[in-house]
Task: inverse folding
């Protein structure tokens, strides 16, 4: 029982981070139909800016996340204006390939900055190795805060999309950009805000990736790549799917790592989400909550 409580909490913590990363992908896909692989580098940048502000500048964890959110949102805006917008109307793969190049450049720049590249770092969370009992089982307090922070952000985002004027505009642009513009929706403002929101989500995810017991390093970019199955499983254009997909991938990965037989190898937990993704795609190509594409013949 105690092992399962600990596993569930750690799985939900990891899954919450995957959900935040997946939401960043989905927001951009819904707003502009683009696959933004630079989201990986922006996530890593957000984590290191949090470390820089909270530890090296001694501003504290919360202030560090705020600084990282501003920086990441600005970088995401530049990526949209300099890369995605000029390629609007081109095939989806054009933007995807271009943003892969941006991601490589971002991660190279991060690796070239010596204070960030010389060691694995903890971003400066205040909880350290503290534990809190859950059903009588001690679990890392940091895991509980990661879950709580992610849950608050997800609830705010869902409410914003479903009940605010911006959310109405966002849904209109996602449905039909030209029709939305014809009805007076400020399409340009929606697109700019969507890319900036994705950057903010990436920054928060990056900060949480480097929160104890995990450490942040250039290789932590793989964390964002491991969130891609969550996006596909949930559905590329579904916010609900990104949340569910992230949590499912977290549970599958952590339980596989803990319970898979040694004969499957030490990296079986990294393969398991992709196998699940393949199974979902074979059953339902658009993902669990994605909208099927209808083409007129």
Result:
């Amino acid at each position: 029982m105690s092992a399962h409580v600990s596993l569930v909490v750690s799985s939900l913590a990891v899954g919450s981070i995957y959900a935040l990363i997946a939401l960043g992908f989905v927001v951009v896909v819904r707003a502009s139909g683009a696959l933004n692989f630079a989201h990986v580098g922006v996530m890593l940048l957000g984590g290191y800016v949090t470390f820089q502000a909270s530890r090296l500048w001694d501003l504290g964890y919360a202030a560090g996340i705020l600084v990282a959110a501003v920086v990441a949102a600005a970088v995401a805006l530049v990526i949209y204006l300099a890369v995605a917008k000029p390629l609007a109307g081109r095939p989806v793969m054009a933007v995807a390939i271009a943003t892969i190049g941006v991601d490589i450049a971002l991660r190279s720049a991060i690796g070239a900055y010596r204070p960030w590249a010389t060691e694995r770092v903890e971003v400066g969370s205040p909880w350290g190795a503290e534990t809190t009992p859950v059903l009588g089982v001690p679990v890392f307090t940091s895991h509980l805060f990661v879950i709580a922070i992610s849950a608050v952000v997800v609830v705010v985002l869902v409410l914003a999309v479903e009940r605010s004027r911006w959310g109405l505009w966002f849904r209109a642009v996602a449905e039909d950009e030209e029709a939305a513009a014809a009805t007076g929706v400020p399409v340009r403002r929606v697109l700019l805000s969507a890319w900036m929101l994705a950057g903010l989500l990436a920054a928060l995810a990056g900060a949480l990736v480097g929160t104890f017991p995990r450490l942040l390093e250039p290789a932590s970019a793989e964390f964002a790549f491991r969130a891609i199955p969550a996006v596909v499983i949930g559905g590329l254009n579904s916010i609900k799917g990104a949340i569910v997909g992230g949590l499912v991938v977290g549970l599958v990965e952590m339980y596989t790592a803990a319970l898979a037989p040694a004969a499957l190898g030490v990296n079986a937990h990294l393969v398991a989400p992709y196998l699940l993704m393949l199974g979902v795609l074979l059953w339902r190509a658009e993902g669990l909550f994605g909208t099927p594409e209808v083409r007129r013949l």
